[in-house]
């Protein structure tokens, strides 16, 4: 779990700085007492820079980035167009139209960045927030376009609605981003607490949670549930002759091989040192013995290739089914374990059904 907390989440830094910069830009654009270059031009550039930082944070959150060159281009457009409409062809209306449209597009880019990664249950609030913010800004821009005198427009319905929608959207965005980050961390914690770090298979806690679900589903659906216990033969000898790292590689190899052979909804867990459990839904004893025999034969054939070494290993397996032992996973596992030990006693590298 410490891995979860050691890295500080960089996306939050970009979002925090982005919002500070946006607020500073908004403050600048609302200070007519300042020189026109600061109020009309620099203010928009600072807002553009702030939104680009938020967009960079979103890209970082989804494991990519926004280059500083793109941040510079976004900022430069936000600076240069208002500069043109202030210094070259002065027009308050054109400047306000541009800022409405441009900042709407940047907010929609933020919404699209999040929406592209799916999981709307988690990201929906942020997508909605950025989209509504974009619509509010677009309406303001359109209103300026259609309204000849910007001075009249302050009291209009569209301006009133957008004045209400913009802060509401910003609150949604803040909550949405917090949700996205906390979901990311709870997902990481879930993985850390239910998966085996060495092999990526479920650990005992994960097996207990998921096994219960799969068992109940099979019971309700009247389907058979099979359990295969797998134990590597003479694993201690592999460790003692080649060292623990080679033993670890054998375990990883076995987990990869099992995963390849299983259906997506079958469960695979590392039950102890070199012991694995498979839980197969809708499989009776005869079919499970066939699966186990196929796995045993493949394990026997395969070779674990390391730098200067190739290692072969075999496994013994015990197979049981709910038709004979009931649906209680603990009972199934202990019956499977007994069958697996019978396979060991009978000479190893074999499958015993019970
Ligand atoms: N490399 C490695 N070894 C482990 C791990 N967990 C347990 N072991 C080792 O697995 C070995 C298991 O040895 P035994 O229980 O005697 O089993 P075995 O040698 O496979 O003998 P049989 O099961 O009777 O065929 C022990 O030496 C443990 O130290 C692990 O995560 N990595």
From TrEMBL:
It is an enzyme of class 2 (transferase). Residues 285-312 form a coiled coil. Residues 223-354 form the GGDEF domain. PROSITE patterns: GGDEF (PS50887). CDD domains: GGDEF. The keyword Signal applies. Keywords: Coiled coil, Membrane, Signal, Transmembrane, Transmembrane helix. SUPFAM superfamilies: Nucleotide cyclase. Pfam families: GGDEF. It catalyses: 2 GTP = 3',3'-c-di-GMP + 2 diphosphate. It comes from the Bacteria. The chain crosses the membrane at residues 41-58, 70-87, 93-115, 122-139, 159-183. Its EC number is 2.7.7.65. InterPro entries: Diguanylate_Cyclase (IPR050469), GGDEF_dom (IPR000160), Nucleotide_cyclase (IPR029787), Rev_trsase/Diguanyl_cyclase (IPR043128). The keyword Transmembrane applies. This is diguanylate cyclase. It comes from Duganella aceris.
């Amino acid at each position: 779990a410490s891995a979860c907390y050691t890295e500080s989440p960089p996306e939050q830094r970009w979002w925090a700085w982005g919002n500070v910069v946006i607020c500073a830009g908004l403050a600048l654009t609302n200070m007519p007492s300042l020189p026109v270059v600061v109020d009309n031009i620099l203010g928009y550039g600072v807002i553009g820079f702030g939104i680009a930082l938020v967009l960079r944070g979103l890209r970082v959150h989804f494991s990519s980035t926004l280059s500083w060159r793109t941040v510079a281009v976004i900022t430069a457009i936000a600076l240069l167009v208002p500069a043109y409409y202030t210094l070259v062809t002065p027009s308050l209306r054109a400047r306000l139209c541009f800022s409405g449209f441009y900042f709407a597009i940047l907010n929609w880019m933020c919404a699209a960045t999040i929406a592209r990664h799916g999981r709307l249950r988690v990201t929906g609030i942020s997508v909605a927030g950025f989209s509504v913010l974009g619509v509010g800004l677009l309406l303001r821009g359109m209103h300026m376009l259609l309204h000849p005198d910007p001075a009249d427009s302050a009291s209009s319905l569209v301006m009133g609605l957008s004045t209400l929608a913009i802060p509401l959207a910003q609150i949604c965005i803040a909550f949405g981003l917090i949700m996205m980050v906390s979901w990311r961390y709870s997902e990481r914690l879930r993985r850390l607490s239910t998966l085996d770090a060495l092999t990526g298979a479920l650990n005992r806690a994960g097996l207990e949670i998921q096994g219960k679900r799969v068992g109940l589903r099979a019971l309700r659906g009247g389907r058979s549930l099979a359990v295969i216990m797998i134990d590597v033969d003479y694993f201690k000898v592999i460790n003692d002759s080649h060292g623990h790292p080679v033993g670890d590689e054998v375990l990883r190899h076995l987990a990869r091989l099992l995963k390849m052979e299983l259906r997506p909804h079958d469960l695979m867990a590392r039950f102890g040192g070199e012991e694995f459990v498979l839980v197969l839904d809708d499989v009776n004893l005869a079919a499970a013995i066939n699966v186990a025999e196929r796995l045993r034969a493949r394990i026997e054939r395969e070779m674990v290739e390391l730098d200067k070494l190739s290692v072969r290993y075999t496994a013994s397996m015990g197979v049981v089914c709910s038709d004979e032992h009931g649906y209680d996973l603990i009972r199934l596992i202990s019956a499977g374990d007994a069958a697996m030990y019978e396979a060991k006693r009978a000479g190893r590298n074999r499958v015993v059904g019970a």
